[in-house]
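sry for the spam today, last one i promise. struct tokens for design, 108 residues
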């Protein structure tokens, strides 16, 4: 196995960790996995730019897993936004001015 293959496997593992963290709704684990994914992707890109042959099967697997992670994260965001919207106070209904009486005894 070449260095690029190892780096691609590290990328796949990082994305799988991200998916597991998304399922667990663990914010710290999501952040750590996302950072690991970014590092692995940067290292793999540098290796390929340096002349290493791209490991196509692992890259395709990483692409598919990343698409799944994107869909899950968007679904989680929509769910959170809905829950936050339910907690927001409703619109303020303006109250009519209170009835006041003038010096002539009539209300104004």
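last one done:
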């Amino acid at each position: 196995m070449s260095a690029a293959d190892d780096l691609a496997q590290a990328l796949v593992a990082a994305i799988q960790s991200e998916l597991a963290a998304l399922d667990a709704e663990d914010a710290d684990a999501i952040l750590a996995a996302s950072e690991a994914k970014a590092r692995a992707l940067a290292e793999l890109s540098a290796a390929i730019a340096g002349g290493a042959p791209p490991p196509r099967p692992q890259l395709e697997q990483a692409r598919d897993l990343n698409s799944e992670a994107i869909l899950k994260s968007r679904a989680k965001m929509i769910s959170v936004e809905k829950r936050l919207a339910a907690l927001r106070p409703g619109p303020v209904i303006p109250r009519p001015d209170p009835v006041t009486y003038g010096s002539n005894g009539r209300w104004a």
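The chain has one domain: 3-87. ok im logging off now
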